[in-house]
Amino acid sequence: MQQHTRKSRLIGATAIALGAVLVLGSCSSARGSAASGGGDGEVYTIGFSHVTTTNTPKGAAAEKFKEILEASSDGRIEVEIYPNSSLYGDKDELQALQSNSIQMIAPASAKFTTIAPQLQLLDLPFLFEDSEDIAEIASRDSVVGEAIFENEDLRAAKIKPLGLWDNGFKQMGANVPIRSAADMAGLSFRIQPADVLVSQFETWNAIPSILAFAEVYSALEQGVINGQENTWSNMETQSMHTVQDYITESNHGYIGYIPAINSDFFESLPTDLQQLVLDAVDEASTYNREIAAEVNEEAKQAIIAEGSTEIIQLTDDERDALMATVIPSVWEEYSEVLGPDIIAELLANRN
Questions:
Q1: Beta carbons of 312 and 179 less than 8 angstroms apart
Q2: SS3 103
Q3: Is 120 helix (H, G, I), strand (E, B) or coil?
Q4: pLDDT digit string (tens) for 66-106?
Q5: Helices (H) and strands (E) in the chain, counts
Q6: What is the reported pTM?
Q7: Which of 250, 271, 257, 126 is nearest to 180 (CA)?
Q8: Cis amide prior to 328 (ω within 30 degrees)
Q9: What's the start-to-end Cα distance of the chain, in Å?
Q10: Alpha-carbon dihedral of residues 174, 175, 177, 183, nearest 10 degrees?
Q11: Number of neighbours of residue 127 by Cβ within 10 angstroms
């Protein structure tokens, strides 16, 4: 019953936010359709909206995707990128994708979970130990990969997932030092909209607060929330660290982005162009994985050099103790939603 209540609360809040968005499908004829009439001379435009800056792992991967696809298609596809919530933000990009007002987005996997709850698999705390685990555990032929790329809920919502782009591992920012679950008790933390993340923070006796990415800095600055979990690059590019006294290097969670395309638009493309889109995403995914760790390390060093935020390094025992508070309890709490066989396999592989 507790899980159902959390889920109802989260989905209800998200539905209200999405319901407020103006549906722009009728205005999408210029973007996402041929720019010139019939024949081999047709030029297709892919509008690609995302919420981070261009100098993050996602922003860099989006630019690489544009570069590759425009070159490989000999100009038959143009990619227009709208970064840093300049066109659509967290609250409305999913509906914009479904209405074909925008053709591609690349949200964190958590953003899809109101439509496809099984994608919360990627939000399980401590799912990956290091970056080398990601490619194997979330490969297309793994149980996690199948839950993403063969997801029936996404298909019904006219969303075609194309890949998985790494942002990196989440750290914990706050105005008090955090070394244990007890240190988070009573504090409010911004989270992405996923029930698993609600349970994670409630297990730590903290207060989860769902906020759009673009609103986090001001919420921290004004004391609306006490902390947040994010990658080094997200914190540094949004200056979150300047309004947080401490960052705990916990690597407790993963932020992975799922580049996705409106399925009706994708299927309207000639077959050869469909394949070029898939190939470009795959190449951009390889590039993304190569740079993600480097970008996050550079961001971490920039935060250290700025000097206003103390970095806390957990000992192995402290991290193990934090992990023990949520594994297996939070994983098993969502067994029915995520798939009992999947959770059983993931837990077995940890032993």
A1: yes
A2: coil
A3: helix
A4: 999 999 999 999 999 999 999 999 889 999 999 999 999 99
A5: 15, 11
A6: 0.82
A7: 250
A8: yes
A9: 30
A10: -70
A11: 22
